[in-house]
Amino acid sequence: MSDPYHHGNLRTALIERAIEIMDKEGLEKLSLRGLARDLDVSHAAPLRHFANKADLLQEIAQTGVERLIAASQSAGDLKPGLDRLRQTMNGYVLWATENPAYHHILRNPDVMRHASDDLKSSVDKFASMQWEDITVAQMNGWRPDEDPRLLYLHLISLTAGTAIVLTDPMYRAVVGRELDNADIKGSISIFLDGA
Amino acid sequence: MSDPYHHGNLRTALIERAIEIMDKEGLEKLSLRGLARDLDVSHAAPLRHFANKADLLQEIAQTGVERLIAASQSAGDLKPGLDRLRQTMNGYVLWATENPAYHHILRNPDVMRHASDDLKSSVDKFASMQWEDITVAQMNGWRPDEDPRLLYLHLISLTAGTAIVLTDPMYRAVVGRELDNADIKGSISIFLDGA
DNA sequence: GACATATGTTGTCACTGTAAACATTATTCG
DNA sequence: CGAATAATGTTTACAGTGACAACATATGTC
Q: Which CATH class name applies to A1-50?
């Protein structure tokens, strides 16, 4: 009964342990061999489930984006527009701070360089939702005279930046630690609710 | 005359080559042994100049921040306030897109984790300049009713985010490639010049 | 029950960072 | 000037890593 030859569900165990490692020690400290050790399995066992390290990361990234999309639509059936945009931005930042591993992986060059079509299209889907929100919001009177391309760049930059500032050790040191959820919403509101 | 035992200025050669590698192949592809090979020197020679890999990166980061500070003050003696803030933000993004290596290194956890006091205080100096700009700008009537902490978070997030969006492969894919300098200034102006 | 497939293991290779012991050149100081 | 010393390189070595191939065992299917 003890030490069965087959682990049982090594695949999911690898993913879970990998996320754990990344959340508490960072992506840099993640190694396939380390995972294998943690799960009491031979050093090459993980390769039966993931062709290589980037492949593992990619799979995690994929579920990360899916969770992101789900999270930013959490309220359910919001119509495209400013309200949905606000929720998406808040949801993105929240997602990033609560799942730094996902956020970090998605920004790993090695992962995105070999991104699967699935992953790419998930990312695209998320992006086009925001583009839609901007154009609809403008039709409803929000910053009607602004170039939508600039609004889009601004939006992406602000959400990505906020997530990074709250996550990245360097920026945390600069911006201080005493920021709560209301502050984040406040910062985003500066953009969404104008002057 | 050929193949002298001493390289002459291995230290600076290492730094230059490292920046070259990072700009064209990314931080991930940088290795001490690779540098040594490129410079026709034994694999352990770099360790005479840098205690370890993070040490090399850190030194590059240090000069990176110094260049950043110099670049964002390029116009010379602007007084604190909105104008200087605008220049700092534009300067930061420009610096990041022109020297992706510096920008990337500064955000490497291994570098900042063991950051020297020099590096930390350079970063602090840059941050406090921006804080000063915000408070002065508010005294001069810019977004006077806003919480300065939120403005600061917003500012840092927007600049960091813009730099990342323009640099990071994943975001580049989302936001498209046809963005020029005017677009960047335009996006920043959305924040600085209100609704 | 035999066979095919999925999953693990062992052994190996090339690469990396880092350290220690040694070699050569530069510098300093009597 | 010349010897001691510091600075800089080299060689050798070790442990950790991703990846591959050959092999072993379990699982599932006809």
A: mainly alpha
